[in-house]
Each structure stands twice: as C-alpha cells, then as structure tokens.
Amino acid sequence: MRNVLALVLAGGKGVRLEPLTRDRAKPAVPFGGAYRIIDFTLSNCINSGLRRILVLTQYKAASLDRHINLGWRFLCRELDEFVDILPPQQRIDEQWYQGTADAVYQNIYTIEKARSDYVLILSGDHIYKMDYAELVRDHIKSGAKATIACIPVDLAQGRHFGVMQIDADRRVVRFDEKPASPQPMPDDPTRCLASMGIYVFNSSFLFDQLCCDATVSTSAHDFGKNIIPSIIDSQLVRAFPFRDKNTGHGRYWRDVGTLDAYYEANMDLIAVEPELNLYDHTWEIRT
Fold first, then answer.
1. Which of 81, 125, 264, 266 has the most CB atoms less than 10 A away?
2. Torsional sign, CA 264, 266, 270, 272
3. Mean pLDDT over residues 142-166, rounded?
4. Is the peptide bond before 19 cis (omega within 30 degrees of 0)?
C-alpha cells in the first residue's frame, strides 16, 4: 500500500444534519459517545495499511482540524507516513470547491508531489468498516482505470446515491447520479446497486480526467455527475462489492446525512449483537 495515496473528502456543509453541523463540519460530528464520524474512514485507512492520507477540508473546519491534530498525529513523518489537513488554498481558482472532482483538482499539485501510482478517494462522513486493501488489490489485478465500491440499497434509498448497472465481469455499463427512478438490479427488483463514494484511480489517468473536466464550463466538477459517466464507455471502470469486515457477507454502511439516519445509526450500537462491532480488536476504530 506504499504506492497508494488516500484522499478523504471532508468539506461538506452537512445542512441536513443541523443543528449538529451548525458549528462544525459533518465529519467532525460526534458519534457513539467517543468518536467523530471521520474516525471510521481514518481507522479503515490505518487498518488497511494506508498510512499516507490527505484530508481535504472546507466549511467550519476548526473542530475537525483540532480533532485530527489531537488524535491522528501518531504517524512517522520520517517514514513518509502522515495524516495531513489540506484547507482550500485557491492555487488554481479563486472559488471554493465546486464539487468533489474540483476539490481534488484544486489540490492536484500536492497530490502529484506524493508520487503515488494509485489514488484512493474516500468520503469522511460515512459509518462503516472496510478493508481498502482488498479494493486496491482488486483494482490492480483487473487492470481497470477506475474502480468504484458499491453496495445494494432499497430502490427508495437509491434516489440519494449514484446508481450503477454492471455486466457479468463487474464492468460498469451505466451510471446515474441520484436518479428519480433508480434502475433495479437484474437479480433483485427491490434493490439497486449504489455507489459508496469510494473510488480508486490510476494516478496519471485521474490527473488527465480532472484537467479535462476543469475546462468544461458546464460541468458540475463532480465525480458522480461528470467524471464517472464520461469514462465508462471508453475506459474500463469496474465495480467492487462491499463486504463487511466482521461478517464477511453483511453490509453495514450508513450515510448519516440526516438527523433520522444519524439517530438510527447510533441506536444500532445498543443491539445485543450490533451489526457494527466497536469492540473488535482485530479492526479497531481509533479516536
């Protein structure tokens, strides 16, 4: 995993989580008493052997900066290991990040300096445990230009995510961002295949796509809306099915973007046998 750079997108406003996000970014919202939401993504990185991590912040980042500085500064800089915070620098444009792809593009100089062969793009506001090393190995073995982690969700939920269709070899043949009528999975008419917002790209390919997208004035500069749909016809883009670390077959992944979802995810922890095991010493969640 030494040739992989992890980018954690942690700049969202989290409007639907107000008042919890009134004074802090969504990834910095407390969860389960002892944690912040971003702890799950960062812990997954460390447990997966990824120790070169950049956190891209934007709105109301003071609480998030403080949390990372207090709890995530244990890596050895001399060994080229780090969890670094990247605030908006306006190196390329005078605007704030316009979308997920634009957030990465505006930091392309720093990303290039890391000299990594692969870039793993993550969201800092989901609750789950996942071995990213399995995803990266699958991506490298397949020879794909990009790989998207995915999970089945109910059709009603699919309207809030990017929804994809794949063939027998897991090649992505269609991708719709937040469709009004999600296309169901061929073998399950009640569910669709949703993107988790987790992508692996070959670095040079990613840089080329970001630079091309930046020149399109009508683009929203977003991975789900623009980058992914523009490459699936001409490049090999594959899906990676998410498997939970504890069960191997269960799929615990929660987008805690609303107060109801946030409450339900917290209540999941008090079950007699919770789907999300925070006492698992083989996959510890740090804070």
1. 125
2. positive
3. 92
4. yes
| Per-residue confidence band for 257, with pLDDT thresholds at 50, 70 and 90 | confident
DSSP state of 276: S
Other Cβ atoms within 10 Å of 79 Cβ, number:
10
Would the pLDDT of 92 be above 80?
Answer: no
Kindly write down the DSSP assignment for every residue of 222-265, as one continuous string: -IIIIIHHHHTTTS-EEEEE---TTTSS---EEE--SHHHHHHH
Q: Nearest to residue 183, comparing CAs of 171, 174, 172?
A: 174
Give yes or no for a contact between 123 and 255, defined as CB atoms under 8 angstroms apart: no
Helix%, strand%, coil% for the chain, nearest 5: 30, 25, 45
Give the pLDDT band (50/70/90) at residue 250.
low
Mark residue 14 as left, alpha or beta (left: phi above 0; alpha: psi -120 to 50; beta: remaining): left
- Tell me the backbone φ, ψ of residue 204, rounded to 5 degrees: -60, -40
The model's pLDDT over 119-152, given as tens digits with 9 standing for 90+, comes to 999 999 899 999 999 999 999 999 999 999 999 9
The whole model's pTM is what? 0.92
* Helix or strand (DSSP H, E) at 111: helix 108-113
Strand residue runs (E) in 111-262: 118-123, 126-128, 146-154, 162-166, 172-177, 191-202, 237-241, 253-255
